[in-house]
Amino acid sequence: MKIAITADPELPVPPHHYGGIERVIDMLIRSLVQRGHDVTLFAHADSKPACRLVPWPGASSLSRADTVRNALTLGKAVLMERYDLVHSFSRIAYMAPILPLPIPKLMTYQRAISRRSIELGHRLSRGTLHFSAISRWMMRHVEDVGDWRLVYNGVPMATYDFKAFVAPDAPLAFLGRVEEIKGPHIAIEVAKRTGIPLIIAGNIPQEHRDWYEANVAPHVDDRLIRYVGPVNDEQKSALLGGARAFLMPILWEEPFGIVMAEAMACGTPVIGYRRGAVPEVVTHGETGYVVDNVEELAAAVAAVDAIDRAAVRQRCETHFSDDVIARDYEKTYRSLVRAEKGQTAALVN
To answer: Taking a C-beta distance cutoff of 8 angstroms, is the pair 150, 136 a contact?
Structure first.
């Protein structure tokens, strides 16, 4: 198939540092190209994908002028290149010129879903715009509008080393943006209650620097609590693979949380709050524990040795691997293209 994929214009694909959506797009493109598909990516000019790149002329998703420029760029390319399908990880607005066209279009949501936008997109596209989400939790309030598919996020399994066993004194791990809604302060409380060391990794957004200085920094003593800053893929694999458990005490409804899949790829159990998609990703008692408060977090840490790390890795391979994600999107593409060809044939006849 000849496939056009769009990303937001703010970050390159793959991202230089953090950028979960961009990592998923890069992973998907690599898998699709390996499967023989002809892929074009519309993205930030500094992107280095494993396919042809069309740079967006506009740099901001929040700028109306940039949105118009990007929409026209995509529209012109679709008219000239005769793609089989357009897969958007960016904005519905970028597809405005092509919504009425019969070409199948898939809009994948990795952030909050606006019911108004999907109703408008569904109506203007006459049903040729289809939707997918990265968790059932995300689409639970909108799946009555249009055609929805579920395709989870995933990780390139070869990037993460499986560790069947960890040292008796292995630490706990927290990896993510160091800000309140991610719960690093709760992870610190768990470390103090259990006496098990905690390694915190991740970037500190500038707008959350004061919160970090007040709620995390005073506890960092380089013995029980360590903060190691941002980490690259190699460091991430070593951190997660060497951890007794990965803590996910989120205080918001996170739609997936790729870092959970990254930990599972290493065989590391995940212990998280019952928020967002955590209960979909973590199988309670098998690949980790889903809990409701800090007391239950601490109790789960005490019980984590009962989790089979090989089963954790296997769960990731069968549900959240790059091969599985590419297969599921490929299956969706073929279904949408077949449906469009069937409708075209019916109109001709």
So the answer is: yes
Residue 145: in which H helix or E strand, if any?
Answer: none
Cα separation, 57 vs 39, in Å, equals: 19
Burial of 117 (0-12, 13-18, 19+ CB in 10 A): middle
Give the chain's domains with CATH numbers: 2-154+322-348 (3.40.50.2000), 157-319 (3.40.50.2000)
Instruction: Give CA–CA dist 22/14, Å, rounded.
Output: 6
264: Cβ contacts below 8 Å, ≥ 6 apart: 270, 281, 287, 312, 313, 315, 316, 320
- As given in the structure block, the two tokens for residue 235 are 């460091």
Q: How far is CA 349 from CA 128, 267, 338, 344, in A?
A: 20, 55, 16, 9
Q: What is the pLDDT of residues 205-239, one digit of tens each?
A: 999 999 999 999 999 999 999 999 999 999 999 99
Angle 243-137-172 from CA coordinates, rounded to 5°: 10
Packing angle, helices 294-303 and 184-194, rounded to 10: 60
Whether pTM > 0.85 for this model: the answer is: yes
Q: What is the DSSP letter of 256?
A: -
